[in-house]
Design a protein that fits this description.
Layout (H helix, E strand, L loop, with lengths): L1 H19 L6 H43 L5 H5 L2 H23 L1 H15 L5 H17 L4 H5 L2 E3 L5 E3 L6 H13 L3 H17 L7 H22 L2 E2 L2 E2 L12 H21 L20 H14 L7 H6 L2 E4 L5 H4 L2 E7 L4 E5 L4 H13 L3 E2 L19 E6 L5 H14 L13 E6 L5 E4 L4 H4 L6 H6 L2 E8 L3 E4 L2 E3 L4 E3 L6 E5 L13 E3 L2 E4 L2 E8 L24 H6 L1
Antiparallel strand pairs: 1-2, 3-4, 5-6, 6-7, 7-16, 8-9, 9-10, 10-19, 11-17, 12-16, 12-19, 13-18, 14-15, 14-17
Helix pairs in contact: 2-4, 2-5, 6-8, 8-9, 9-10, 10-11
One 2-acetamido-2-deoxy-beta-D-glucopyranose binds next to α7.
Protein name: procollagen-proline 4-dioxygenase
Function: Catalyzes the post-translational formation of 4-hydroxyproline in -Xaa-Pro-Gly- sequences in collagens and other proteins.
InterPro entries: Oxoglu/Fe-dep_dioxygenase_dom, P4H_N, P4HA-like, Pro_4_hyd_alph, Pro_4_hyd_alph_FE2OG_OXY, TPR-like_helical_dom_sf
């Protein structure tokens, strides 16, 4: 009970934090924001135009008045001169009329100001900005991007792949991001960002922040970094440092040596966790999953995001993975065979190339946008219904229901026929479509899709029990992503890169209906582009006629409906 309450409290806190910074969690949302900003910008331009005209008219009027005043005459002295008198008459007629006309547009100025304020109601707040800053720090860390390059406006993934931005970051931007990295325990990155801030300040002549302002932050960050490394080691649940200290201190040489030993152990440990369970013996899975802590798994996750499919996967395995055309599951596929490519046999993970056409993906996106996108929760429920939002998952989503469009129903049928499962009745055989869009650095840390029954608070309902757990995940990418955004299976060492219209699927349950932890997977941070996915989860309850009966109760299922033991024995 106690742990339940404390977990709830943590969830609420995280949820609160996440709710406060909501803007950056979807690129679609950012696009909307961009359009709003442009709209406000145009209004401000016309406002400035008006104000300039008014200023000119008033300036002209006043310049004559001041000229006269500076002549130091009394009123009589001015008026007695006929030319002066004429000028006054002209000013008070034509001159004044000009001022009045331009000032009458003052009402329009107010109108414009009101409009601008109205548009600005949907602008982000400071928490959103912090969220975006931390996202940038996380992206930089996840893909090991060069901070100087980033500051100069170049998002460089490799020698060949880079994305220039319209403008670079100034010193204050870098300092801001550095502070956020520091506060979240990313000490090595904090030092990188803050020292880059100092560099930029030097090159921009202290324009946005001065070198003297930045220096104390830099020395603090370096000191804390080295302290943490020495006392706690380079990595843990809520901190990361570089493997080496920035400054070696003579007086703590002994401790440094000790920390070096720790480091070596840690490095050894890191090697251990790069081991993949697929490596055992004959290239088939052991049934064991590695016992990783959350942060250890995150390290594996980010490495897979950076480096791609597990290099240490057994070589024998690659030969067993096949690409084939599938047409036997439904007559429809005789005309248009499915293009299957296997990524892993145990657990079975495969993709269908060109599963949806461009037009079909667009329909899903527009249906999702029509429903307003909501911040994605994780856990089995939707936000507001017991689901929680946090920075574990930064995306926005909405549900597209079966029956809402004929294309949706067509796709449901196609999916059912492809994997040989029942999607009907809707929301029992399978869930409605969850369509999600990811934001700057948008990601979803490793998790399993199954366990719906055990995850629901207060125990599963009768409906949940009837419906059963999520037996299969069928995920379609609705757009290309230029960089990042891969779907990574940490325990299987599999990386699937998004491609518009491609679908990936895997079995979450073993044939005895127990969850398969080897299916743990996550979505890599999006480095460039907008990631759209569409999930359909099949539930086990309605599959009793469809699901294969395995000889070995704990064997795994592969495509479509054969068990892995059978498939692998062939
Ligand atoms: C980052 O890029 C800068 C400028 O291109 C280069 O001088 C520097 O060596 C790079 N840093 C790293 C760690 O690669
Ligand atoms: C920027 O500030 C540093 C100290 O904070 C100073 O030494 C340097 O001269 C300044 N540069 C300019 C161009 O003002
Ligand atoms: C430029 C412009 O739109 N001027 C309008 C400002 O408001 C007055 C009265 O409301 C109008 O007569 C002007 O045409």
């Amino acid at each position: 009970m106690n742990s339940f309450v404390s977990r709830l409290v943590i969830f609420l806190l995280i949820g609160d934090m996440a709710l406060a910074s909501d803007m950056y969690s979807s690129v679609a949302e950012l696009e909307r924001l961009y359009l709003k900003e442009q709209q406000a910008g145009l209004k401000l331009e016309s406002l400035l135009d008006l104000i300039k005209k008014q200023t000119t008219a008033i300036d002209q009027y006043l310049s004559e008045l001041t000229e006269i005043r500076s002549a130091n005459l009394d009123s009589r002295g001015v008026i007695s001169n006929p030319i002066n008198a004429f000028h006054m008459m002209r000013r008070l007629t034509i001159g004044w009329r000009e001022v009045k006309t331009t000032l009458e547009t003052h009402g329009n100025v107010t109108d414009i100001v009101q409009d601008v304020f109205k548009i600005s109601k949907s602008f982000p707040n400071d928490e959103d900005l912090s969220g975006a800053a931390f996202s940038l720090a996380q992206l930089q860390g996840a893909y090991r991007l060069n901070v100087s390059q980033l500051a100069s406006g170049n998002v460089q993934l490799s020698d060949r792949i880079s994305f220039p931005s319209v403008r670079g970051l100034n010193a204050r931007d870098c300092l801001f991001i550095g502070k956020h990295a520091f506060n979240k325990g990313l000490y090595g990155q904090a030092v990188d960002w803050i020292s880059t801030a100092a560099e930029v300040a030097r090159s921009e002549n202290n324009r946005s922040a001065s070198v003297s302002e930045i220096k104390p932050f830099l020395s603090t960050a370096i000191r804390v970094h080295d302290d943490v490394l020495e006392k706690k080691g380079p990595i843990g649940a809520d901190w990361r440092t570089n493997p080496e200290p920035f400054e070696r201190r003579a007086k703590s040489l002994r401790r440094a040596r000790r920390s070096q030993e720790q480091q070596q152990q840690q490095t050894q440990r890191m090697r251990d966790i790069t081991y993949t369970p697929l490596g055992a013996g004959h290239g088939l899975a052991t049934n064991k999953s590695p016992e990783w802590s959350e942060w250890e798994e995150l390290e594996v996750f980010f490495r897979l995001c950076r480096e791609g499919e597990e290099k240490s996967r057994p070589t024998g395995l690659k030969g067993r993975l096949k690409c084939r055309q599938i047409s036997h599951t439904h007559p429809y596929f005789i005309l248009r065979p499915l293009k299957l490519e296997e990524h892993s046999l145990v657990p079975y993970i495969a993709v269908f190339h060109d599963f949806m056409s461009d037009a079909e993906t667009e329909i899903f996106k527009s249906l999702a946008m029509a429903e307003r996108l909501e911040r994605s929760a994780h856990g089995s429920k939707r936000p507001g219904q017991g689901g929680v939002t946090s920075d574990k998952r930064t995306s926005k989503q909405s549900w597209v229901e079966d029956g809402s469009h004929h294309v949706v129903d067509q796709i449901s049928k196609r999916i059912s026929d492809s994997v040989g499962l029942n999607s009907q009745p809707s929301n029992v055989g399978s869930e409605h479509y969850q369509v999600a869009n990811y934001g700057i650095g948008g990601r979803y840390t490793p998790h399993t899709d199954h366990g719906v029954l055990s995850k629901s608070m207060g125990g599963p309902s009768e409906f949940d029990l009837f419906r059963g757990d999520r037996i299969l995940t069928f995920m379609t990418y609705l757009d290309d992503v230029e960089a990042g955004g891969a779907t990574v299976f940490t325990h299987a060492g599999v990386v699937v890169r998004p491609k518009k219209g491609m679908a990936v699927f895997w079995w979450n349950l073993k044939s005895d209906s127990n969850g398969d932890t080897l299916t743990r997977h996550g979505g890599c941070p999006v480095l460039h582009g907008s990631k759209w996915i569409c999930n359909k989860w099949f539930h086990s309850g309605e599959q009793f006629l469809k699901r294969p009966c395995a000889k070995k109760p704990r064997s795994r299922i592969s495509y479509p409906g054969t068990t892995s033991s059978r498939l692998l024995n062939n």
